[in-house]
Amino acid sequence: MAISMHAASVPVFQQLLGALSGVLAKAEAHATERKIEPVALLQARLFPDMFPLSRQVQIACDFATSVSARLAGEAVPAYEIGDQTFAELQQRISATLAFIGGLDTARFEGSEAREIVLRPGTPKERKIGGQAYLLSYGLPQFFFHVTTAYDLLRHNGVEIGKKDFMGAY
């Protein structure tokens, strides 16, 4: 039996965004308990040319939103960049979960063959089939940013492990 595009995407995003929410809650508690300014964690980077934690979370949410929307044939909602507190990042995750959870499963049918256009009307425009978009572009990008967020917090002493990264499954 073939797996549906919905099953290969939305539940994966939901699982890891739920886990990311839990990891952020632990990070906030860690900062409070140790009297660390939250901005020290929120702006932490693995290397100077990489995005900080707050942006990693935003991008992970953006990929979950945009990949799900495009596969469902829906408009990609725009969110402002600017979440600078743990509470704002939690709101971003909640909004993302609400959006992807509200997408009609039936809208994903046939999306493996749907042409997805990235960066339309720009010199970087790229057309890709739905299945390749999900499996070779969307999920790897999402996993990269969730993993980087986790790594930033672990590197900064937040006591989290693989179970925290994986979340409930």
Map the helices and strands.
Layout: H1 5-33, H2 38-42, H3 53-71, H4 86-101, E1 115-118, E2 126-129, H5 130-155, H6 162-166
Antiparallel strand pairs: 1-2
Average pLDDT rating: 95
Main sheet, how many strands, which sense, barrel?
Answer: 2 strands, antiparallel
Percent in strands? under 5%
Assign the CATH topology: Four Helix Bundle (Hemerythrin (Met), subunit A)
Distance between the termini: 21 Å
Task: Give start-end ranges of low-pLDDT stretches.
Answer: none
| CATH architecture verdict | Up-down Bundle
CATH class: Mainly Alpha
Count up the domains.
1
Report the C-alpha radius of gyration, rounded: 17 Å
Structural class: mainly alpha
Can you write the helix and strand succession as a string? Answer: HHHHEEHH
What oligomeric state do these chains adopt?
single chain
Helix content: 55-70%
**What is the H level of CATH, i.e. the homologous superfamily?**
dinb family like domain
Number of helices: 6
Count every beta strand, where a strand is a DSSP E run of 2 or more residues: 2
Main sheet: which strands, in order across? 1-2
Shape: globular
Structure described in brief:
This protein has helices at residues 5-33, 38-42, 53-71, 86-101, 130-155, 162-166; strands at 115-118, 126-129. With 169 residues, the chain is mainly alpha-helical.
Characterization of the model:
This protein has 169 residues and is mainly α. The protein has a single domain (5-166), classed as Four Helix Bundle (Hemerythrin (Met), subunit A), CATH 1.20.120. The protein contains 6 helices and 2 strands, in the order H-H-H-H-E-E-H-H. The chain has helices at residues 5-33, 38-42, 53-71, 86-101, 130-155, 162-166, and strands at 115-118, 126-129. Strands 1-2 form a two-stranded antiparallel ribbon. A hairpin with a 7-residue loop joins strand 1 (115-118) and strand 2. The longest helix is centred in the N-terminal third of the chain and has 29 residues, at 5-33. The radius of gyration is 17 Å and the shape is globular. It starts with a helix and ends with a helix.
